[in-house]
């Protein structure tokens, strides 16, 4: 096990290239199960969630090849092997195996998903959707058992706008008989990306990216080649860093339209941003103004950038309020930021940040992926050395982080944990 060490206080300058989107990748890889011939996905990020999904596809008989950032999956010999335990518990997105295996095999046994602890993360809308398509579902000893004699298209209204439920229902519905209509669907760019892959595989989907998606089921799906969209959350993280300590940071391979809410907020703070077709240039001013943000479903401000943005707000003059309407308990980074001298109070679903303060280096722990991002941003903003443990969370979502940060002029390195630190981590 390793920790991330950061010598903070140095400005960042130069170009960073964004990798393929994690939250697309983790759905696109399970979606390959639905095809009957090889599917190639280009532009995959180098993150641990991709590795885990590769292993899971191999467990059910898939032949998977990865070269550089390209994965080819031959799903022709896959079988509906039960996956009640083990690696499925390591990531949230293993729930996409339910929709994909139900679609292809009409049965699946999948352990309840793991992932970041952001408060309660129910999957009732996924289950509601599968049941509407004709599946019988039981929950036995921490695993979900799904079975259908036949999947039939249905009209499904999501009571909660959910990215996961929208994609999961799409995965099963492409192989159902007849038409499925998902109402109150989520509109995130990752949903369009998955719909594009499925369409290239022969599926009939209309309306992805709007709140009504229509799917006409087909009898079989075939292989294809697909290029994944850039990771808007990784891009946003580097934009926040550019605003905090950048002296001219160019973020390359980004779709600026995916980040309009962040760009608007950064401009409100006084950050200079220029955006091109697939690049964004960020120049951090010496004085930042306090702003309020409220996380919302797309195209609102993304909850996944709430924690990184909080780190930036410690540098802004005045009082900022950050409210998370998606995950009301996504505040585990706050105590760690306080150790670094941040002045933040949490009240219900909101964090109130008073600034500006100069952050100090400290030993801190990432409790989840984006808390980790908040902490490495804070470490780069701070005076002195910061040590971030819980690196396994950060490795789930940030491809080649150390190389990318050092490429911008940061001084960041990984170091093995001492025996004493390992013991301490086990006990906390
Ligand atoms: N919800 C329900 N019932 C459900 C599903 C969701 O009540 O059946 C609630 C959730 O508890 C939450 C809200 O609906 O309050 C939205 O959840 P959603 O289903 O949209 O989230 P998700 O699909 O589980 C994905 C991303 C998250 C990101 C959220 C919101 C993946 C693998 N994960 O999660 O990404 O925060 O959408 O945009 O795509 C991250 O990247 O750090 C991360 C956590």
UniProtKB/TrEMBL annotation:
Pfam families assigned to the protein according to its UniProt record, in alphabetical order: EPSP_synthase
- Gene3D superfamilies in alphabetical order: Enolpyruvate transferase domain
Q: Which residues bind phosphoenolpyruvate?
A: 22-23
Entry binding sites for UDP-N-acetyl-alpha-D-glucosamine: 92, 121-125, 304, 326
InterPro entries in alphabetical order: Enolpyruvate_Tfrase_dom (IPR001986), Enolpyruvate_Tfrase_sf (IPR036968), MurA_subfamily (IPR050068), RNA3'P_cycl/enolpyr_Trfase_a/b (IPR013792), UDP_GlcNAc_COvinyl_MurA (IPR005750)
| Positions bearing 2-(S-cysteinyl)pyruvic acid O-phosphothioketal | 116
Record-annotated Enolpyruvate transferase domain positions: 8-405
Record-level GO BP terms: cell division; cell wall organization; peptidoglycan biosynthetic process; regulation of cell shape; UDP-N-acetylgalactosamine biosynthetic process
Keyword field contains Transit peptide = no
The superkingdom listed in its UniProt entry is Bacteria
Which reactions are catalysed by this chain? phosphoenolpyruvate + UDP-N-acetyl-alpha-D-glucosamine = UDP-N-acetyl-3-O-(1-carboxyvinyl)-alpha-D-glucosamine + phosphate
Which residues are named in the active-site annotation? 116 (proton donor)
Compartment(s) where it occurs, according to its Swiss-Prot or TrEMBL record:
Cytoplasm
One GO CC term of this entry? cytoplasm
Record key words, sorted: Cell cycle, Cell division, Cell shape, Cell wall biogenesis/degradation, Cytoplasm, Peptidoglycan synthesis, Pyruvate, Transferase
The pathway noted for it is:
Cell wall biogenesis; peptidoglycan biosynthesis
Which top class of enzyme applies to this chain? transferase
Q: Which GO terms describe its molecular function?
A: UDP-N-acetylglucosamine 1-carboxyvinyltransferase activity
- Known EC number(s)? 2.5.1.7
> Member of which family?
Belongs to the EPSP synthase family. MurA subfamily.
Q: What does this protein do?
A: Cell wall formation. Adds enolpyruvyl to UDP-N-acetylglucosamine.
Q: What is this protein called?
A: UDP-N-acetylglucosamine 1-carboxyvinyltransferase
Q: Which organism is it from?
A: Neobacillus rhizophilus
